[in-house]
User: Fold this.
Amino acid sequence: MIQTQTIAKTVTFDEFVTWYPENSVHRYELRNGVIVEMPLGTGGHSRVTGFISLKVGVEIDRRELPYFIPGDCLLKPTRDEAGYQPDVIVLDEVALRQCEPRWEKESIITMGSSVRLAVEVVSTNWRDDYFLKASDYEEMGIPEYWIVDYLGLGGRQFIGNPKQATLSVYQLVDEEYQVKQFRGDSRVESLAFPELNLTAEQIFQAGFPLSGMT
Assistant:
């Protein structure tokens, strides 16, 4: 995610939902009680997001899974000062019908069990993805969370020194995230999609124009 500007007033999640402009061309998140306006993203960021959505969508279709990637979705973490819109999110249709009373009218997810996979593609505000969202997604009980740092922007404590493009896959084990990292030709190991045939480098390269293109 990329931060452009904030609306400097502390609000709760429900106040944020009530405030959210209908049919807005902009996207917003709530971070520590502050509304943050999100841009559409850079070309590279959008390419990576679209590539992941495409590959995961094909896998859902191929395996005939009861999952889908929504066009719009707002996550409500356990704490009331946050509301997120992941770059890519995969939802479980069965869990939605059983556990999410706010979904049909508001596209709001409150239970981590309704989510099969959440993905954030890193931009300059990498701290939000590695610190805030990892903690909140873990507490929600989201079973799998990817941080796709295709530009190698994150802190050295997360992606090493020297910095390098890294895909961090967080998976819930005994209610805590365990992280595995993938680079280069390493095949991504996914809990939600164990048969996914995709390498870290394929995802990273999606963020750059093909050589020779004008």
